[in-house]
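Hi all, posting the design record for the shared folder.

TITLE: backbone redesign
STEP: 1 of 1
STRUCTURE INPUT:
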């Protein structure tokens, strides 16, 4: 069975996920997370190529450091094309609420591995992060847009926690 073709073009935005092989952790230390972030680049219409490079280079680093061999990631990465619209904005907020939902932290801004602090202007955003893409939909990269973003579907998170 052939793989479905990816829609790729310069300037596109994607929600990309790569799962650890056997659903195992791919980061065992802060330094490993930082090393993975060092591999991030802005795709120029070459998502498949850049993800192959990032996952391959990080796997080599991880395997050498941990004195192991074999796959680190489970199969091909998943990528959803995200248009600058309400869906992308809600998707971004959903992702920033994940550490709270799975009880890794009580507040999004406490989880340092997400871009939330950059979105909220609490830290300088990473060079590869384009928060204007999301904040622009809410009125621009300004305090009002950040406040609108912060108020996005928290009610869904609260309802999920009550339902447990």
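Okay, here is what came back for every position:
SEQUENCE:
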């Amino acid at each position: 069975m052939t793989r479905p073709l990816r829609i790729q073009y310069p300037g596109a935005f994607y929600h990309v996920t790569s799962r650890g092989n056997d659903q195992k952790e791919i980061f065992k230390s802060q330094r490993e997370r930082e090393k993975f972030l060092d591999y991030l680049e802005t795709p120029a219409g070459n998502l498949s190529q850049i993800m192959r490079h990032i996952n391959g280079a990080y796997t080599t680093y991880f395997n050498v450091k941990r004195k192991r061999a074999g796959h680190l990631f489970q199969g091909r990465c998943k990528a959803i094309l995200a248009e600058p619209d309400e869906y992308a904005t809600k998707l971004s907020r959903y992702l920033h609420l994940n550490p709270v939902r799975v009880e890794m932290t009580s507040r999004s801004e406490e989880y340092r591995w997400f871009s939330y602090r950059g979105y909220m202007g609490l830290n300088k955003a990473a060079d590869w992060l384009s928060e204007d893409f999301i904040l622009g939909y809410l009125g621009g990269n300004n305090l009002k847009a950040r406040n609108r973003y912060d108020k996005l579907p928290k009610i869904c998170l609260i309802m999920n926690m009550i339902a447990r």
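COMMENT: The two ends are 39 Å apart (CA to CA).
Let me know if anyone wants the other runs.
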